[in-house]
């Protein structure tokens, strides 16, 4: 996805509402931890029947993993799935939410373009995280997918030491095990750019690892 303008993320700002704070600053869409549910049960749940249900949930790690983690339950879906209402808990302070979920974490994507070819544009490759059985979508990938052409997104570039060797007269072997094919697309763009002569490249071989069942 080409990005026309790169801007540093601005964390220090004034939010106009609690909704804007939670949606744009806090990792509110993350899967709940067992500790969060335990603290919620111990300090805020007032309904005895609800408290007993949640205590059963957190008593076993296997049960919690099956019912919450594997189903990727966020705080909103957790309240709906377990039918928690305002009568089940006392007022949860905003400080508890902020301390529990913390600052929203940046998502890092490999750059797929080359500065030698496109000096004022950056390309990235993004996989849309979508788990239909669990009704779960990736927060960042979904936001980018729904963004319009005039939508402003906070992005930044990290310097990397992952670069092509200076001597390109020797054969190159690309191994895409964890990063995938994304950064090597930029390498190939750089190789065929005017910066290098194609007759200097002897051979380029790429091994790409993919998740799948063994044969």
UniProtKB/TrEMBL annotation:
<dbReference type="InterPro" id="IPR001709">
    <property type="entry name" value="Flavoprot_Pyr_Nucl_cyt_Rdtase"/>
</dbReference>
<dbReference type="InterPro" id="IPR017938">
    <property type="entry name" value="Riboflavin_synthase-like_b-brl"/>
</dbReference>
<dbReference type="InterPro" id="IPR023173">
    <property type="entry name" value="NADPH_Cyt_P450_Rdtase_alpha"/>
</dbReference>
<dbReference type="GO" id="GO:0003958">
    <property type="term" value="F:NADPH-hemoprotein reductase activity"/>
</dbReference>
<dbReference type="GO" id="GO:0010181">
    <property type="term" value="F:FMN binding"/>
</dbReference>
<dbReference type="GO" id="GO:0050660">
    <property type="term" value="F:flavin adenine dinucleotide binding"/>
</dbReference>
<keyword id="KW-0560">Oxidoreductase</keyword>
<keyword id="KW-0274">FAD</keyword>
<protein>
    <recommendedName>
        <fullName>NADPH--hemoprotein reductase</fullName>
        <ecNumber>1.6.2.4</ecNumber>
    </recommendedName>
</protein>
<dbReference type="InterPro" id="IPR039261">
    <property type="entry name" value="FNR_nucleotide-bd"/>
</dbReference>
<keyword id="KW-0285">Flavoprotein</keyword>
<dbReference type="InterPro" id="IPR003097">
    <property type="entry name" value="CysJ-like_FAD-binding"/>
</dbReference>
<dbReference type="GO" id="GO:0005829">
    <property type="term" value="C:cytosol"/>
</dbReference>
<dbReference type="Pfam" id="PF00667">
    <property type="entry name" value="FAD_binding_1"/>
</dbReference>
<feature type="domain" description="Sulfite reductase [NADPH] flavoprotein alpha-component-like FAD-binding">
    <location>
        <begin position="17"/>
        <end position="141"/>
    </location>
</feature>
């Amino acid at each position: 996805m080409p990005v026309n303008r790169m801007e540093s993320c601005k964390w220090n700002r004034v939010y106009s509402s609690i909704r804007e704070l939670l949606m744009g600053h806090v990792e509110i869409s993350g899967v709940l931890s067992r500790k969060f549910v335990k603290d919620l049960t111990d300090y805020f749940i007032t309904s005895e029947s609800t408290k007993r249900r949640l205590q059963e949930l957190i008593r076993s790690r296997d049960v919690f993993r099956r019912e919450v983690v594997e189903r990727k339950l966020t705080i909103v879906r957790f309240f709906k799935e377990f039918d928690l209402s305002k009568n089940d808990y006392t007022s949860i302070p905003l400080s508890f939410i902020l301390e529990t979920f913390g600052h929203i974490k940046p998502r890092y994507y490999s750059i797929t373009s080359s500065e030698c070819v496109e000096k004022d544009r950056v390309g990235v490759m993004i996989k849309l995280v979508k788990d239909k059985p669990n009704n779960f979508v990736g927060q960042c990938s979904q936001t980018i997918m729904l963004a319009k052409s005039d939508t402003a997104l906070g992005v930044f570039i990290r310097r990397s030491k992952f670069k092509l060797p200076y001597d390109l007269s020797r054969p190159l072997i690309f191994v895409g095990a964890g990063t995938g094919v994304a950064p090597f697309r930029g390498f190939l763009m750089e190789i065929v750019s005017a910066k290098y002569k194609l007759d200097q490249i002897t051979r380029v071989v790429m091994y790409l690892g993919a998740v799948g069942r063994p044969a």
